[in-house]
Each structure stands twice: as C-alpha cells, then as structure tokens.
Amino acid sequence: MFRTELDAIDIKILRELQGDGRMTNVELAQKVGISAPPCLRRVRKLEEGGVIKGYHALLNAPSLGFDLVAFCMVGLKHQSEADLKAFAAATNAWPLVRQAWMVSGESDFLLHCVSENLTVFQDFVIEVLTANDRVDTVRTMLTIRKVKSVGLVAI
What we know:
By secondary structure, the chain is α+β, with helices and mostly antiparallel strands. The chain has helices spanning 8-19, 25-32, 36-48, 81-91, 118-129; strands at residues 68-76, 97-102, 109-115, 135-142. The chain has 5 helices and 4 strands, in the order αααβαββαβ. β2 and β3 (109-115) form a beta hairpin.
C-alpha cells in the first residue's frame, strides 16, 4: 500500500492510532468521523497492507530500573555485504541494543542502547561490542534526557 492509496480518513486513522493504539474501534471511528464498521475495515486493510506493523506497549524504562540510554556509532573493519549482514544479525542477540540502524557516513551502524546503569553499559561496550571481530571503532554518546517523543512518522 502506497501513500497515494491512502485517503484523508486513512491518514486520520493512522494519526490517531499512532497516538493511542489502545483506543476502541468505536472511539477511533468517532475521532475520524465515520461509523465503526467501515473504520474497522479500514484498519484491517491498513494492517494487511503492512502500513500498520503492530501494536506495542510503551514501557517506562526508568520505573523498571533501566536508567541509562545511550547511542553507539560503530564502524566495521570491512564493509562487505557479508560483514554488514553478520554484524546486523549479531545485534539481535544483544538485549541491551533496542534498535539498530545501518547508516552512511563516518560510521556503519547506529545502536540505540538501554541499560540498568553505566557499569552494565560499559561492560557491554568493552566485552561485547569492541570484542566483536568485525568492529573497528565504537563511539558512544550517553543521553542526558529525552526532550521529545512522538510517533515515528509525522503523518
């Protein structure tokens, strides 16, 4: 499904669900100005078309004891397709890495990490990340505080 196939109601549905994925279909239908049955059909079509990938609970990390958020810029020794794929696959085994992007520029990967504390994060960087045979450089950035958090798409 492409954006050109989405009409104004679909856009409203996506905007509302991105803000609150737990609202009932009746609430959603009221917010977007249509009745519940066609609203549900539209949501199902958006899900089946891959526009809506899933629904998740957003957890309050500090309340669960995860107080540190950091980013790691990782440069690999070689940028062959095999090395890039192998490193990308390795990130899936690291629970501390919550999101990972392959990027262009000075680094090859940008890792979003969430940890209990600085010691756990440092241990990960030293014992896991820099110990990886494919890794050449690691630059870390500790966050101070989150200043904005909205849906991933400005729709």
